[in-house]
């Protein structure tokens, strides 16, 4: 009886079209869910994009060879011998260093250094040059989907090169700044990321 009354109340609150053709109203719900998903995807990219835009562009304006790197020439050469992992989402990564500390898990606040570049190697953001690491809550959409996914399988002390495909990258373009290239929407990007520590967790904690 209660379910029937609730159903009638929903119909009364709907439009005339809903009262006349109740099935069509229900059919519209998947479209609403799809729009909500798109909004969430745009939001997660916008959060990191806003953070990048707020950082000074002076470091990115340095010549490429003068910028600090997480993975130097020797590291890059060594990466070729490391296993290339491909996940179900299309994300790929290679571990330059496999961490031995606590593992990042969804919901954990973690602190990382990262260098973000285009596939051609042009850097568009570098936390090392900023002199301040980046903290992020894992798996909550605070960074682009590809980086978020990569963090969930890292351990403290790890250094990973993450190859983010377009669908898991920035849903909106990042504008160019002085010495910093633009990043087209849904374009592949590369992150070198080092997981420094997880606040509140000691090395022996799991």
UniProtKB/TrEMBL annotation:
Q: Isomerase as a keyword?
A: yes
The record's annotation in PROSITE patterns points to: FKBP_PPIASE (PS50059)
Which EC numbers characterise this protein's activity in its record? 5.2.1.8
Keyword line: Isomerase, Rotamase
Catalyzes what? [protein]-peptidylproline (omega=180) = [protein]-peptidylproline (omega=0)
Q: Which GO terms describe its molecular function?
A: peptidyl-prolyl cis-trans isomerase activity
Show where the PPIase FKBP-type domain sits.
Answer: 107-199
Q: Return the InterPro entries for the record.
A: PPIase_dom_sf, PPIase_FKBP_dom
Q: What name does the UniProt record give this protein?
A: peptidylprolyl isomerase
Organism annotation: Raphidocelis subcapitata
């Amino acid at each position: 009886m209660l379910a029937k009354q609730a159903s009638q109340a929903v119909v009364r609150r709907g439009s005339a079209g809903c009262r006349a053709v109740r099935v069509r109203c229900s059919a519209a719900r998947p479209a609403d869910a799809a729009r909500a998903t798109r909004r969430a995807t745009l939001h997660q990219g916008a959060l990191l994009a806003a953070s990048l835009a707020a950082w000074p562009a002076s470091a990115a304006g340095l010549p490429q060879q003068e910028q600090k790197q997480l993975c130097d020439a020797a590291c890059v050469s060594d990466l070729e011998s490391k296993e290339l992992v491909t996940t179900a989402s299309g994300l790929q990564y290679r571990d330059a260093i496999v961490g031995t500390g606590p593992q990042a898990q969804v919901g954990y606040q973690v602190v990382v250094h990262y260098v973000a570049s285009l596939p051609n190697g042009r850097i568009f953001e570098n936390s090392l040059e900023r002199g301040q690491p980046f903290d992020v809550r894992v798996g909550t959409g605070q960074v682009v989907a590809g980086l978020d996914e990569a963090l969930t399988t890292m351990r403290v002390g790890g250094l990973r090169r993450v190859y983010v495909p377009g669908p898991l990258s920035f849903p909106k373009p990042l504008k160019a700044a002085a010495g910093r290239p633009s990043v087209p929407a849904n374009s592949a990007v590369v992150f070198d990321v080092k997981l420094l520590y997880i606040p509140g967790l000691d090395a022996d904690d799991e």
